[in-house]
Amino acid sequence: MNGFFDLPSDLQHSYLGLVGLHLREALLPVLAGLIVSLPVAQLCVRFRWIYPPVLGITTVLYAIPSLAFFVVLIDYFGQSETTVMVPLALYSLVVLVPAIVDGVRSVPPETLAAAQAMGFGPVRRYLQVQLPIAVPAIIAGLRVATVSSISLVSVGMLIGNQGALGNMLYDAQTYERSALAVNSVLTIGALGVLADGALVLVRVLLTPWMPKKGAGR
Amino acid sequence: MNVLDFARAFFTDSAHWHGYDGIPTRFAEHVGYSLEALVIAAVIGLPVGLVTGHYGRGGNTLALIATAGRALPSFGLLVLMVIWLGLGTLPVMIPLVVLAVPPILVTTYEAVRSVDPSPVDAARGMGMPEARVLFQVELPVALPLIYSGLRTAAIQIVSTATIAAYVGLGGIGRYIIDGLYQKDYEKVVGGATLVAGLALVTLAVFWAVSRLTVSPGVRRSG
Amino acid sequence: SSDGGTNDNPLTGGKASGDSVVVGSNNFPESNLLADIYGEALKAKGIKVTYKQNIGSRETTYGLIKNGSVSVMPEYNGALLAHLDQKAAPKTLEETTKAVNAELDSRLMLLDPSSAQAKDSVTVNAETAKKYHLTEKSSIADLKDVAKDLVIGASPEFQTRRQGLVGLKSVYGVEFKSFKALDVGGPLTRAALKNDDVQVADIFTTDPKISEEKFVVLQDPQNLFGFQNVQPLVHKGTLSQEGVAALNAVSAKLDTETLLKLDTQLQAEKKDPMDVAKAWLKSVGLG
Amino acid sequence: MIRIESVTKRYPDGTVAVDRLSLEIPDRAITVLVGPSGCGKTTTLRMINRMVEPSEGSILLDGQDIRQQPVNTLRRSMGYVIQNAGLFQHRTILDNIATVPRLLGWNKQKARARAAELMERVGLDSALAKRYPYQLSGGQQQRVGVARALAADPPVLLMDEPFSAVDPVVRKGLQDELLRIQEELGKTIVFVTHDIDEAIKLGTKVAVLRTGGRLAQFAPPAELLSAPADSFVEDFLGADRGIRRLSFFPADGLALETAPVVPVDADAGEIASRATAPYLLVTGSDGRPLGWSEPDKLTAGAVDREQLLDYGRPFLPATDSLRTALDGAVLSPTGWAVAVDGEGRAVGVVSQQVIGEAIRDAHSRVAERADAKAGR
Amino acid sequence: MIRIESVTKRYPDGTVAVDRLSLEIPDRAITVLVGPSGCGKTTTLRMINRMVEPSEGSILLDGQDIRQQPVNTLRRSMGYVIQNAGLFQHRTILDNIATVPRLLGWNKQKARARAAELMERVGLDSALAKRYPYQLSGGQQQRVGVARALAADPPVLLMDEPFSAVDPVVRKGLQDELLRIQEELGKTIVFVTHDIDEAIKLGTKVAVLRTGGRLAQFAPPAELLSAPADSFVEDFLGADRGIRRLSFFPADGLALETAPVVPVDADAGEIASRATAPYLLVTGSDGRPLGWSEPDKLTAGAVDREQLLDYGRPFLPATDSLRTALDGAVLSPTGWAVAVDGEGRAVGVVSQQVIGEAIRDAHSRVAERADAKAGR
Ligand SMILES: Nc1ncnc2c1ncn2[C@@H]1O[C@H](COP(=O)(O)OP(=O)(O)OP(=O)(O)O)[C@@H](O)[C@H]1O
Ligand SMILES: Nc1ncnc2c1ncn2[C@@H]1O[C@H](COP(=O)(O)OP(=O)(O)OP(=O)(O)O)[C@@H](O)[C@H]1O
Ligand SMILES: [Mg+2]
Ligand SMILES: [Mg+2]
Q: Which of C174, C201, E335, E367 is an S-S bond match for C193, by CB 3.0 to 4.6 Å?
């Protein structure tokens, strides 16, 4: 039972099971965050005055430690994955909303004027011009959100083993098996780096129109 | 009871305002950890970011380091460090620094990189030594972005420093961890409010510092 | 809204509670071990079991078992009583049992207590013992005059529990210089006590480290930490008669010595709790 | 026809960008709006396709107020070309050009076929079709912009400083291209620039606006040059007004003299017979000019080409203007300009004096026309 | 003097930006490098202050290889001005200008005093001293750039397309300013542009480079216009070569006729006495021209100003060139140009024919000088 990937029984999962659980707990909130932040960001673009307060609120939310969120949310969702995922989704909003807003705003004014002049309505213009051009910025935001979400899930361990791979940390401590902690940290780190790489790949596939690196500047 | 009630209850309880577990003590402890971590991270991140940005090399390596730094779970590192190093401030500083270096490093690099090349060119053309080009031409213009990197790092540190409480240290995190185990929502909400407040203070400090040190010429045109 | 209330909360992840028994545990190794032991004993009777381990402190787990997210929790009767009634100060096991049953939520029931006791304790490290001439015969009360120079370490919840700082002050008049929140008699607490980061700590009496590190457990003449018999707490209606019988059979076999032995296997020999549980159950013919 | 009727635009911040402007924009011609920065050119242009709504006044398209049709229908009937082309960076060249046809509901295949056709029309190699905008030079991007605007064959083209971001050589090419396209397709083009030379080169009529969005003058470019309405327009036109105006006077009416043209192999007699002219133009055996010589310095059969005087830059009477002819005359040390045919063969020479007379004649013809128009 | 001796620059990627270029850059004069985009102008300029190191060949400054002095000392002895000025946005105008003096170790006060002096020299209001670059217009920024380069009074000034980002009107002002400063201070200026007009206007000598970094021609602008070395240079110079060349011929030698000038209040006798001229120029009581009239249409005491012909744009014989005079003549329907003095009073008139003769004379004078120089 002391192989690097053998886990104590109280974790209730195999190593791969925890990896799957971890990814689910980390990625679902980012997805939810993306779905929510698209319209929110669009509102911020449309009504410029909304953006500063939204930024302010999200910055403060971002500063609130995840554990505090977990504890308060236990009341509403119990010691469950939901409790872990809700704050993660909130955090991803903090990263994604500004990323999308900046991305959409970075569309050159000539391009927008051209679209308007060609008779694009606002919805079409958003979907066919602004959003595609904002893809690199959105993915840049997604990268940060995803990686930090993957890293933050581990804190869920503190609220009754809801931290997926993070749960190994508790056992590492109580049973004084440091290998478990090393395993946990490295696995989470590797997942983060892999997810980041996957998103970079998605970006490359989605944006054949971007100048290749080195061609710019 | 809603969140606001908890917060009010927490802050109006006079027992929370003195002693080793009083708000002033915990707040000071928290500021102490955060400052220490920020200073260490800045000492590592700023010079590397400035130099790589100035020479425009190593951007990919930095991005990789930054991703790795962000990917390593602070909480996991903390537990690992406690297992390896035992109790104390060092095991807390390591994850906080790992957390804070990437934003400082990457934004500093980007900030220097993205300085308009023509004044830099002009500076070289008038015979400015490289060090002066970096400190007198690039740095003043890059300053706002560099501050934003430091600010992000600071906010993350302030928020994450709460985990110090998990390994028996003080700081505002104490209220949150204690609240969790004691099922005392007043403490949790009070602690969270304090952290958010400290974050706002941090924002204000950065705003003030940037007002004082960023040239009006850069502020208005950037 | 602080502990789930009466509505059955579907969000607590206890989805298996319909057809399988959810065995929970608190966030310390012995609780995990006990959960494994009780759970495996149920399994041996062909009952479906789901584990929900390391949930947290009693403050949390009590809410969960009350609303049915958890069906069975290994409990310590005195501690449970203290949680339910801050003022209770029973003098005997019977009094404890009676008092705790009186305070218990109507949806819950306690099965037979075992004779195994794992008490919280006020324990000092070797240095402190030497400095203040404390021995195994000394009482917590002996700290009264010197406590102002000592730091005590324990789990965060110790700070606000009667079986904690509250009781130490009211029962023994002991007030420490400061309190350091650590873990539930776990590695942090042990390490802190050993390194003299704290001079006094709450260590389980079943902790093998006590003899290993020459810690000195102080006597508790006022029974502040009461009777801490291991005793399964059950949400009514989740356990069949057969299940109840199985758990009672386990409790009958458990005693303090056994617990100490099993804890040692767990902590000193670093065995997996599940393996320890299964092996023991087998050895007593219940596995 | 587009009629701008007493239109005023006041932006919310109080800036009056256009002030009671009235213009009749002729069909199938290029109308240029020119003026200093901030004089309201862009605002005026954008009011035509309702990207900006006038505060007062109205704009009529073929007699109908433009507000009477749905805004997107209106816009799709007008091509719009701007500086830096405003291309969609995320779409290939072909898809960029096919944008409006697709908006109009054409199927993909038809829209792309049309786009390919247009690439050819604006002089873009079909190999560029699958590229993205960043892979094109500024001039090529600008061509894509024009092609995109033309894609749905709109009767009207609005162009806002389309060529101002490319370098002078490429810019000249684009201007020539635009004139060619305009000739072929006969679009109604409204063209904004702040470059007076561009305005004069492209405009059938030029509207000069002054700061504050008021019209200073609206006239064909030749008239602008000969009779600026006031000192603002005059200053704006700059020096060289006279010479630049000559661009509008064709050189085909010049009386060419053939007598002074002698082939390099002419015999002494022929040279002597032509010696009445002060200089003789020696041509090579292919008829192309070699240089000038005074008759007495010319020895039959032994022409020293080194000794011949520079003949400057010849002009083509059929297509060039008096400006080119005058330039040729002024450039030559003899004061005579050389006229050549399409193959570069000398077809005659003309003295600066004769060019001067032709200029005066042209002046008086213009004056007569003006008088006639004024009913005098 | 700066001598560029057979310099080649090959960039690491293999691009040959400059190919065996040799140039002698005259002292105290403006040498312009001109050529199409990418022809190596910037590279050449930057090799002079060693921001780029040549791959082959060497550059001498006053006979000494520039590699023999420390690079920063060399650079501080050369002012450097670039497009968009490259100002330090975090420093005030005054501090921007004081940069090099401060680098040279001057104390703050002295450096600022010098900066203030230079602001005046380049025509910047001293009220701008405390402003930041973003608060200045493009033209003002460019002036600051020039002032900054001049601050330490370097003998050499290197300018890389300094005026190409500002609009044409401001640009003209900056060019005039530069000529004035050059005249006052006598710096050795190397000026890069891709605008041939700018090159001709500013250059004492102009080096035309062709793509690939090879020298096509190096000559004074008048010579460039009259004798382009090959068709590349000729094409690059563009049309109007002859007329533009006239800018180099002063108008002060023109024989002015005063006979055709009559005051508006002249009596019949006076008008009759001057009627030999085809047209008479009527002047107002202040001596300024009013317009042309045929003598027989002029009635003493009853001049109908409306009926007078446009007198075009007058020229100042003392400062203007034959180009301006010719333009004036061509613009006027009479073919006569009007000469005025500084106050705008008509001092005489001259026919296009006379201007034509003057042009021919100027040509032959140039040819004689060239012959003399060539030893012929
Ligand atoms: N959306 C706006 N809100 C307020 N003022 C505006 C707006 N758009 C333009 N203006 C102002 O209206 C005036 C005319 O602007 P416009 O863009 O039409 O000028 P322009 O002639 O196109 O100038 P340029 O040559 O610089 O493009 C300017 O003073 C400008 O600052
Ligand atoms: N650092 C470099 N590395 C590689 N090639 C370069 C580099 N700098 C310039 N070049 C190339 O060298 C050639 C000359 O460049 P240079 O900048 O001197 O041209 P230029 O005449 O100044 O052009 P422009 O008018 O566009 O400024 C160009 O083909 C350019 O692409
Ligand atoms: Mg405009
Ligand atoms: Mg250049």
A: C201
